[in-house]
Amino acid sequence: MDSVSGLPPGRDARNYGSAIARRQAASHRSEFAMTSVAPLFRVAVDHDTTGDRFGPIADLLGTWVGTGNGWNVIAVPDATTTFVPEAVRYNETLTFATAATQVPNKGGTAGEQFNQAITYSLAVSSVDGAVPLHVEDGMWLFMDHTEHPIARQAIVPHGNAVLLVGTWTSTDGAPAIPDLDATPLTKVAGKPPEPVTDATYLQSYHDLATTFPDVLHPNATLTETIASQAITRTVAFDLSTDPDGGIANTPFITANADATSMSMQLWLEWVDDGAGNTFQQLQYSQVTMLDFAGILWPHVNVNTLRKFS
């Protein structure tokens, strides 16, 4: 044995170590083969991504386009006037594609849950197409063994990761789109938030009515769109971060304009065009609550898109 290196005479440290590592790896492989240890996770039991696997979210698959139909209503913090409300019209392209089927979740004595997953990617721009306004990627899941079988996972470059869960229904005819009050809310200790009554706050929203008449009731633009349409079928999704989802924000967002909750209603509609043809239409209403200056500010997005592929 070499007194300095501790190696047998004539052995190079690098080669000697490599030989030991090879013997150890071979031994470990042999032990693994003998014990037949099961893999710790499986991405999917199979890769059958035909539409039949995906239940109600199968109807989302494809590309949807909305040109000039979208509205973004938001109030943002301002260094000089506390807040600035905005109402911005937008274009949107939204694409869904199959991802995986029969993705297993181990539940111990509860058994296994199997998820079906589709990806989505959206891009929002100004109505002239010149200014990119928003990008987002994520997944929709159809899950068994739960009272909330639908989930949407979203990642956005502002620094938010969102999980919404909820339910779905299928009905004949047009959807019953509810009214949405976009009035800011005052936080009240120990009580539910109450609508802001300060005329200064509300006047800023009323001033936007020249740009977007439905600014305080944004869902009205959705009901106006379908008022004269012959909708034969609707699949509706109702999702929220409360009580089983959530939002993770970067520290800057949490400190300055905390996104505390999100809810979304989405309607897939089959429309008879009156000439013997049917086209598919997607409408949604989404509300993200932003917390700053002691006020909860609804950030509202509404849009109507048509399926093109």
Report the radius of gyration as a whole number of Å: 27 Å
What is the string of helix and strand elements? Answer: HEEEEEEEEHHEEHEEE
Number of self-contained structural domains? 1
Strand order of the largest sheet: 1-2-3-4-5-6-9-11-12-13
Q: What fold name stands as the CATH topology?
A: Lipocalin
**CATH architecture assignment name:** Beta Barrel
Summarize the helices and strands and which ones pair or pack.
Blueprint: H1 13-35, E1 62-78, E2 82-106, E3 112-126, E4 132-143, E5 150-156, E6 160-172, E7 185-188, E8 191-195, H2 199-206, H3 220-226, E9 230-240, E10 246-249, H4 251-256, E11 258-272, E12 278-292, E13 295-307
Antiparallel strand pairs: 1-2, 1-13, 2-3, 3-4, 4-5, 5-6, 6-9, 6-10, 7-8, 7-13, 9-11, 11-12, 12-13
Detailed description of the structure:
This protein is mainly beta. It is built from four helices and 13 strands. The protein has helices at 13-35, 199-206, 220-226, 251-256, and strands at residues 62-78, 82-106, 112-126, 132-143, 150-156, 160-172, 185-188, 191-195, 230-240, 246-249, 258-272, 278-292, 295-307. The protein has a ten-stranded antiparallel β-barrel with strand order 1-2-3-4-5-6-9-11-12-13. It is globular, with a radius of gyration of 27 Å. Mean pLDDT is 87; it is low at 1-9, 11-22 and 27-41.
